[in-house]
Amino acid sequence: MADNRFVLRVPLDASQVSEFCPNCAVRVLVSSKQCAPQQRLVRFSKDKKGTAAFEFESAPQEALRVALGPETATAFELQRMQTIAVNVPASSWSGTSDVAMPAVQISAYYWWWWQHWQQSFKVTGRVVSSRGVPVIGAAVSAFDVDAWWWWTAQERVGEVTTDEDGSFAIEFRRASGWSPWWWWATRDWQANAELVGRITAFVGQYPKFGALVGPTAQPSMEVFQPLLASSSRPMPAKLSPVRPGQGSGSAIDPAALEGLRERLAEILPRNFPLPVWPWAQWAPWEDCGANLIFKVTDTCGDETTVLLNESVSEARWDIPSTLDVTLTTREARFREKRLGWTLVDYLFSGNRPQAGAAVGRPA
After folding, report:
1. Which of 43, 112, 306, 308 is most buried, judging by how many CB atoms fall within 10 Å of its CB?
2. CB–CB of 129/334 below 8 Å?
3. Within this chain, do residues 279 and 333 fall inside the same structural domain, yes or no?
4. pTM for this one?
5. How many helices (H) and strands (E) would you count in the chain?
6. 363 within a domain of the structure (yes/no)
7. What is the mean pLDDT of each run of 10 residues along the chain (363 residues)?
């Protein structure tokens, strides 16, 4: 360490972890509102102890947040995960340039979670036409979809191009343990017309519920008020899913949703055909699983055709770590037809006209 620098030392103690792996490492991140985050990778001695040291050019003028996590975590993830974190007040630097924190104890719970906080997925498959012909050179996009009542949010997890056999492979990973507030606020929620129709029709079979409140563009708690009012039991204040003093939408408290789900489960008819909230338990910020839907497009020149665009009712819920799919296009016009392929072109790849070739487009 330079003599003119301010130093923060963070001792780590994993002695409480019986299944401790000496070869494993822990990533330590120091961050604040004004300073760029710093991170260190700490390996432990045989006594299950280690230390991370951080330098500053001047004494920090605001509190620092020290966060611990798995060695594969990024700074972005450590700043948004529910993990071991300690605050170092700015007053710690009063009269000293070298601050040594009390040892941060690593519990067995967090050690286990750090080994399982993310899951890797590999999706393989083929894109074929309704006649079973491989669709070559199409763009396949995979989306992870979340459904909360009749609102959905999608996140693209991969995009690839099909090969000469119409095959493709997509690999991605999902992490768990996010801060619920951050997870919720970063989702682009939209009312899903298909779910609006299906939920309205399903609940409408039971006249006692009356008409549901129409969907808003963004999630709102107003839709549930008539349902809750139909119950003879009052809604406990502690289960309120909206932060006090604020409206709906972005003010929804994810931590209170499970209590609300349990109350709605008592009121609503059971056995909705799709595993969406509140019929299914739902806390995706704590889950590294994935629910996939696919979109397939084909671009020829300046024209893009959507060959397949799956809906939420076609989602593959909670997929395994390896998944193989066959995607059948619903659009008869695809690249081969527009390039004027013949049976000979399918059988002999050397004869196939390419997208850039001067091939007349069929009328």
Report:
1. 308
2. yes
3. no
4. 0.81
5. 8, 16
6. no
7. 78 91 89 91 92 94 95 94 96 94 96 93 96 94 96 97 96 94 91 95 86 85 83 60 45 83 91 94 93 95 92 96 96 53 56 47 36
In a domain, 309, yes or no: yes
CA distance 8 to 31: 12
Nearest to 151 by CA among 93, 211, 95, 196: 196
Strands (DSSP E) along the chain, which ranges?
6-13, 25-31, 38-43, 49-56, 64-70, 85-88, 98-100, 104-105, 118-128, 139-148, 151-161, 167-175, 190-191, 292-300, 303-309, 322-328
Q: Is residue 194 domain-shared with residue 132, that is, in the same domain?
A: no
CB 324 within 8 A of CB 330: no
Tallying the residues shown for the chain, one arrives at 363
Question: What CATH number is given to the structural domain containing 10?
Answer: 2.60.40.10
How many domains are contained in the chain? 3
- Identify the domain containing residue 200 by its residue range: 180-286
Buried b (16+ CB within 10 A) or exposed e, 12-49: bbbeebeeeeeeebbbbbbbbeeeeebbbebebeeeee
Domain shared by 79 and 13, yes or no? yes
